Amino acid sequence: MKNEEPEKWRNTIDPFSLPLKKVCIQEILGYPHAANQVFYVKGVQAGKEGYYYLKYAHHVDANLKNEIEILWQLHFRCTPEVVEYDAEDYQYEVTRQIDGRRLSVILEEAGLDSGLSYMYEYGRTLARLHQAAGSFPKAPHRRFHDIPEPSHFEKIDMEDVREWLIVNKPTQINTCFVHGDFHYANLLWKDGYISGILDFELAGMGNREFDVAWALILRPGQKFMRTEEELWEFIAGYTAVGGCDPALVRYYMALIYTRFIKFGDEQYAQFVRKWVRKCITQQ
Questions:
Q1: pTM above 0.90, yes or no
Q2: Are strands 175-178 and 187-190 parallel, antiparallel or unpaired?
Q3: CA atoms 39, 40, 42, 46: torsion sign
Q4: Contact 235/119 with Cβ under 8 angstroms?
Q5: How many CA atoms lie within 13 A of 143 on its CB side?
Q6: What are the two backbone dihedrals, phi and then psi, of residue 21, each rounded to the nearest 5 degrees?
Q7: E strand or H helix at 151
Q8: What is the C-alpha to C-alpha distance for residues 183 and 185, in angstroms, rounded to an integer?
Q9: If you count DSSP H runs as helices and E runs as strands, how many of each does the chain have, helices first?
Q10: CA dihedral over 39, 141, 119, 196, signed as positive or negative
Q11: Residue 274 DSSP SS3
Q12: pLDDT per residue over 77-91, tens digit each?
């Protein structure tokens, strides 16, 4: 499989210094972009060479314990296999590589600015994941779930949007198992299907429509999720498997976008403003 992981882009720990017992690291092949320190490595387990991802807890919100405990009981296709981990402090984990590629890379190589043909599978896979059964903990709360303070809306010149979010705040939450960070960077594709779902640190029992909205957000630099056609194709795939309230999804997308507007350039900010304005006038 072609290595598409970036070269070293920040200071990290020395992976060879970790007291791994099951996997002997032979070579560091890449340094995936992530909040935690992640290493794509070649290693040996039980005398057999293989490829793995080593994740080291790097930031204050790291929750490898939650991810590991979720993966142990989550019986769902295309989830990572935990090979070993730090059972005392949960500072690191090693998972076996899953064969697949990120959608952004696939579309770029094909010269496409739309992921329409992938959206049905995208939505359908999330709906199936939402039906997972188990004794899962409550999903971690994130600042993105909350309406920002008035000063935030003043800075982005969208004070009226805050009022709309307050007035239309849902009174009921539809709860199910959620991934918590289901977006293109955490998904691998092979032959038109999702082959791998990564990063379960934020998973657990949580808000179904918020999880759908998080998947539908256009990230800065992303070449898909730009059009209504793509969004509705995703929803079509989702609702072919499970129930979903599009109005609630739209609300949470507007909520999330009020924070994401600060993450991109002016062109991205203009896209967000236009989308949110259209959203709040459709209610």
A1: yes
A2: unpaired
A3: positive
A4: no
A5: 8
A6: -110, -30
A7: helix 150-155
A8: 6
A9: 9, 9
A10: positive
A11: helix
A12: 899 999 999 999 999
Six token digits for residue 102: 């990120």
CA atoms within 13 A on the CB side of 59: 8
Find the radius of gyration of the CA atoms of the chain: 20
Token pair for 209: 């429509």
Pairing of strands 82-85, 187-190: unpaired
> How many residues does the structure list for the chain?
283
Contact criterion met (CB below 8 Å) for 95 and 34: no
Q: List pLDDT tens digits, range 139-192.
A: 999 999 999 999 999 999 999 999 999 999 999 999 999 999 999 999 999 999
Cα–Cα dist 33/39, whole Å: 9
Q: What are phi and psi of 71, to 5 degrees?
A: -65, -30
Reduced to 3 states (helix: H, G, I; strand: E, B; else coil), residue 196 is strand
Backbone angle region of 139, left / alpha / beta, with phi > 0 → left and psi within -120 to 50 → alpha = beta
Q: How far apart are CA 109 and CA 105, in angstroms?
A: 6
CB environment 186-202: b (16+ within 10 A), e (fewer)? bbbbeeeebbbbbbbbb
Closest C-alpha among 46, 4, 43 to residue 25: 43
